[in-house]
Amino acid sequence: MSALAQALATDDVPVELVALLVAAELMPSLDVERELRKLDALAAELDLERAPRAPEDAARLLSDGLARRLRFHGDREDYYAPANSLLPIVIERRVGLPISLAVVYIALARRLGIEAKGIGFPGHFLVRVGDDERHAFIDPFEGKVVDEAGLAAILERIRGVPAPVLPEHLRVATPREIAVRMLTNLDVAYRRIGQLGRAFVACDRRVELTELPEHLRDRGLLALRLGSDSIAVSDLHDYLAARPAAKDRASVRAAAELAARRMQGAGPRN
């Protein structure tokens, strides 16, 4: 079992530890404790008043502190770069994706006595400040508090058409869900630049954390491209067994057959 899976065995694991353990899968020499101390130092630098306050006020203080004082912001120039999903690099550069920036917001909020949670909003991770009854939302990519109209505008931009914001869009994300979402971003980012070995590592952890057949398929197809034919055959057969009516069953079966032929030395390795 990976260190990431072990940490996620408890429900109350801090999200910043989860994100750092995700990064450690791709950065083996990472000193997790040192990175946690960097977050301590950032919270001390922010030095917000610890007195209880209304969620709306706390959200404004938090977003102002991180976006304007500490200058954390979204990467608009190279959005899909792997660095934007690796928390130690995000902390260093103060640039990232919505979800990695949200982790920084949540980590610093807790150190400052502010209740904050991650919200797995469709296509754009958010931070909720406050509890289930009274709260405000922060868009960490933009570094600002968003109201109901702002949430609707984000959803319309993501989906391309106006759509209502539903309660399930604003559900608090679990640490495991945050880990899987970050691993998915890393998988996509590394595939995009042709670093398939690193993509495989991210995909492998998704399999471990979810056991979803679709992740088995993805790992199997990556294994095929990397020449790991025995893994490819096993994963693709398991996917087909779990999803016999899948729309992609023909292409997945063909991939599994190719891997099997190569294992027998009957096919080209390309």
Structural class: alpha+beta
Shape, per Cα inertia axes: globular
Helix content: 55-70%
Radius of gyration: 20 Å
Distance between the termini: 32 Å
Order of helices and strands: HHHHEHEHEEEEHHHHHH
Work out the number of β strands.
6
Strand order of the largest sheet: 3-4-5-6
What do these coordinates show?
The chain is an alpha+beta fold and 270 residues long. It folds into two domains: 168 residues, C8orf32 fold (Roll), CATH 3.10.620; 60 residues, no CATH class. The protein contains twelve helices and six strands. The strands form two sheets. Strands 3-4-5-6 form a four-stranded antiparallel sheet. Strands 1-2 form a two-stranded parallel sheet. Strand 1, helix 5 and strand 2 form a beta-alpha-beta unit. Helix 10 runs antiparallel to helix 11 and helix 10 packs across helix 12. The mean pLDDT is 94.
